[in-house]
Amino acid sequence: MRTKAIAFLLASIAFSAMSEKAIAHNASVVAAEVKKAASDALQVHQKRGVSGLKNAVSECWMVPRDYCLYLDSASRRIAVGATYAGIVLDEYFYTASVSKRGHAWLSSNGRGQVANDQYLQTVDQMMVRALVIQRDKMIEDEP
């Protein structure tokens, strides 16, 4: 009995360690995709403006994937920021529109509305930081 208990404990510890590694790996993959989406959105905006962002996001959603969610979030943030320069916010980048596209993608995960809302809020918070970092890198890289 004691041997079974020890074996179970060791198996539990090993499984827990593997789960933590998998979670850490998934988090680093998400962070890398968020960073890439922020960088891509800033580059598109620099070259083609807000209309370029809208086109990039629309094209991305033609083949839905997590990256599109991150690109959509980055583009919305940039489009909202552009309103300070007098550009009218396109309905495509309204919070409700971006959220609707995100929920359509996330609905298949089976986690439910509340969990998906929390995920979208977390992505948005991560995106704010990623955009600032990527913008600063672009400024530093300019001649």
Layout of strands and helices, then pairs:
Elements: H1 2-61, H2 66-82, H3 95-106, H4 113-141
Helix pairs in contact: 1-2, 1-4, 2-3, 2-4, 3-4
Quick take:
The chain is mainly α and 143 residues long.
Please provide a written account of the structure.
Residues 1-24 form the signal peptide. Keywords: Signal. The protein is mainly alpha-helical. It has one domain. It has helices spanning 2-61, 66-82, 95-106, 113-141. The longest helix is centred in the first third of the chain and has 60 residues, at 2-61. The chain starts with a helix and ends with a helix.
Integer tally of domains: 1
Indicate the overall shape. globular
**Poorly predicted parts:** 5-25
Q: How many beta-strand runs? A: 0
Keywords: Signal
Signal peptide: 1-24
What labels would you give this structure?
83% helix, single chain, globular, mainly alpha
